[in-house]
Amino acid sequence: MFGDYSIGDLGSIFVMQGFAGLILFSVYVLMALGLAIIFGQMGVINMAHGEFMILGAYVTWMTSNLFQAYLPSLFSGYFFLAMILAFLASGALGMLVEWGLIRHLYKRPLDTLLATWGLSLMLQQAYRSVFGAREVGVELPQWMLGSLRVTDSIEVPINGVFVMCLTVLITIAVAYVLYMSRWGRQVRAVVQNRIMAGAVGINTEKVDRYTFGLGCGIAGVAGSAFTMIGSTGPTSGQLYIVDTFLVVVFGGAASLLGTIASAFSISQTQSTLEFFMSGSMAKVLTLLAVVGILMLRPQGLFALKVRK
Amino acid sequence: MIINSRFFNRSELMGFIALAAVLFVILPLTLDVFRLNLVAKYLTYAFVALGLVLCWGYGGILSLGQGVFFGLGGYCMAMFLKLEASSVENTKIQSTPGIPDFMDWNQITALPLFWQPFHSLTFTILAIILVPGLFALIIGTAMFKRRVGGTYFAIITQAVAAILTILIVGQQGYTGGINGMTDLRTLKGWDIRPDHAKIILYFVEVVLLFACIGIAQFIRLTKLGRILVAMREQEDRVRFSGYSVANFKIFAFCMAAIFAAIGGAMFALNVGFMSPSFVGIVPSIEMVIYTAVGGRMSIFGAVWGAILVNFAKTSLSESFPQLWLFGLGALFIAVVLAFPNGLSGLWADYVQPRIDRLFASRKTKAGWTDNSVADGAPAE
Q1: How many Å apart are CA A226 and CA A30, to the nearest integer?
Q2: Tens digit of each residue's pLDDT (9 = 90 or more) over A210-253
Q3: Using one digit for the tens of pLDDT, what is the confidence trace for B184-206?
Q4: Range A62-91 average pLDDT
Q5: Average pLDDT, chain B
Q6: Please, what's the b/e burial string for A138-147 (b: 16 or more CB within 10 A of its CB; e: otherwise)?
């Protein structure tokens, strides 16, 4: 399959496809970060995660419409406000869901999967009723359009670069919150031993609620970033949910580093393969490879050594 | 112990009689052929739900990829029917007569090698059982021997469902793509489309369903069934007692796969087509929903769950398409939160005690038929 290209062509192809893969990587990482917190830390399978992401995307879309209508002078900066709003909206909904649904199910992890699936159906229908079944696209501000020319044969789109910078920032922030802050220590303590954590005075219920909220909030930000590279529909979230779960499981569920590494390898494999074969076959091969590796190494790439 | 030594205890016998009465007598007498065919379609999911009772309810293995096995069984059957429908005289207008129409549309000029054996009905029937069975054996061995279970297993089976769907949709020339295999006509020269054929197929399906119920009940009553339950509750203790936990899990998973495949094959026969929309993640999870609503611990409950949820889906989505997804989602959350044992759990908690009391008060009266009709009450 490499025969028809010269070495230089191949180099450019790999760089360009690699860059396309990096944008996919950003979306995966943002989605998977939230999921890694919820699934990896709390053991809850949140099938509605994609719908939380889409909520963020719709919030971004509404914000951009509002700015266009009432504050056209500030339009170039709307995205930053939209991101914060998306985080707050998804996080608030997440906390509500934790309070109403998830907290009753911590002892039955498989049942969280079923209940959140029900939730995702309801959210999808809610989006369809409120925003309509058609996909909506966000108008990007002027400075995000266009692309940077790196060399003669290599061009990278600006919105892609922006999404990637965003991803890096959010990843650092999440890592800081989880591993450096007092609250992150509490989260990890509750995960490792709920009863002992409660005994030393941590309010485990509150920690659970905020952890779930944080995970959903990050999903909202992921949705915000997602609007820059694709259009949003009521069922867009569902397309990503399986991939994201595979990313998290492949990385080793409780490890942030693993999540990033697996998101990187999956997205790069897929986008590089996509150049040489149809998109669907590229996806099949990537997923097959992941499932195959998971069968050989079920604990994922980076597993914490835990006695069970 | 006397009760356990019988194949059905009294309440199960009542459930059996009620289900048999409804499926063999009441529905065929009261419904027109179109509706009866719809019931036949619902019942194909009952096979899957039955498998899930064994594998999820008893074994504690939640598989989110039952659509894969449903699809494999269905596609095996559909391939045979499609080949028969694509005889040379039926496909004269194609550029290559004698191959299925979708291959011709995709510029394939010869029948692919893996299609060849599906000219034979014997091979097809064997394939319907063996292909999904072996596939489940491979997945099960790879996963359970390495002690992967619970949520990981669920996610990986889900990924397998996603892979198979993408593969079927992508390989349009070999599988019919997103449209699936349509225009299935005859089975060994016997037309499956007219009304009387639909009725015969319905009864064949119900008989098969009862055979599968019998097998499931047999597994449940033997030592095997008890080990499955023990494994679900305390996996390590079973392992320390010297049982190979992995082998029992693999067995349960394979049985569930084979049941699902039989359902898929009956789907292709009854509905007359097969498409990837019955393979993917969404249908796979819906199949779990049927089981959960009917009762994950109850063999008859699963059958009722499949019939009732689908009936509700058809009637609600016909009249209130907006409400249906809300209703389904809410139903699912309610089942998980409020009554994890589903309809059969409600039945056992609230209705069964009353019937027992009724029996206790008038033991000699012929109350059987009345109650067995009342047993159909969860149908409403």
Answers
A1: 9
A2: 989 999 999 998 888 888 777 888 888 877 888 888 888 888 76
A3: 888 888 888 888 888 999 999 99
A4: 86
A5: 85
A6: bebbeebeee
Query: Which SS3 state, helix, strand or coil, does residue A233 take?
Result: coil
Q: Evaluate whether B131 touches B80 at the Cβ level (below 8 Å).
A: no
- The pLDDT assigned to A254 comes to 66
Pick from B170, B288, B326: CB nearest A114? B288
Judge residue A134's burial from the number of C-beta atoms within 10 Å of its C-beta, 0-12 exposed, 13-18 middle, 19 or more buried: exposed
Q: Decide if B33 contacts B199 (C-beta within 8 A).
A: yes
Structure tokens at A203: 């309010």
Yes or no: say if A101 and B337 are a contact pair by the CB < 8 Å rule.
yes
Alpha-carbon distance of A23 to A161, in angstroms, equals 8
Mean pLDDT calculated for residue range B336-345 = 83
CB contact under 8 A, A291 and B155: no
Query: What pLDDT sits at residue B51?
Result: 94
pTM equals: 0.85
Over 50: is that where the pLDDT of B7 sits? yes
| Token pair belonging to A282 | 């590229």
- Selected residue with higher pLDDT from B230 and A274: B230
Residues of chain A whose beta carbon is less than 8 angstroms from a beta carbon of chain B are 39, 43, 45, 101, 104-105, 108-111, 113-115, 117-122, 124-126, 128-129, 238, 242, 245-246, 249, 278, 280-281, 283-284, 287-288, 290-291, 294-295, 298
State residue A82 phi and psi, 5-degree precision: -60, -40
What's the gap in Å between the CA of B28 and the closest CA on chain A? 33
Q: Which residue of B has its CA nearest to A123?
A: B326
By the 10 Å C-beta count (0-12 exposed, 13-18 middle, 19+ buried), A155 is classed as: middle
Above 90 in pLDDT, residue B215? yes
Secondary structure, 3-state, A154-202: CEEEHHHHHHHHHHHHHHHHHHHHHHCCHHHHHHHHHHHCHHHHHHCCC
Task: Name the minimum distance, in Å, from the CA of A216 to any CA of chain B.
Answer: 19
Return the residue of B nearest to A235 by Cα: B282
Query: Å from A275 to nearest chain B CA?
Result: 16
Q: Is B372's pLDDT higher than 50?
A: no
Q: Which helix (H) or strand (E) holds B191?
A: strand B190-191
Closest CB to B160: pick one of A238, A280, A291: A291
Q: What is the pairing mode between strands B186-187 and A155-157?
A: unpaired
Q: Are A287 and B166 a contacting pair at CB < 8 A?
A: yes
Would you state the structure tokens that stand for residue A199, as one six-digit string? 């005994």
Averaged pLDDT, B101-109: 83
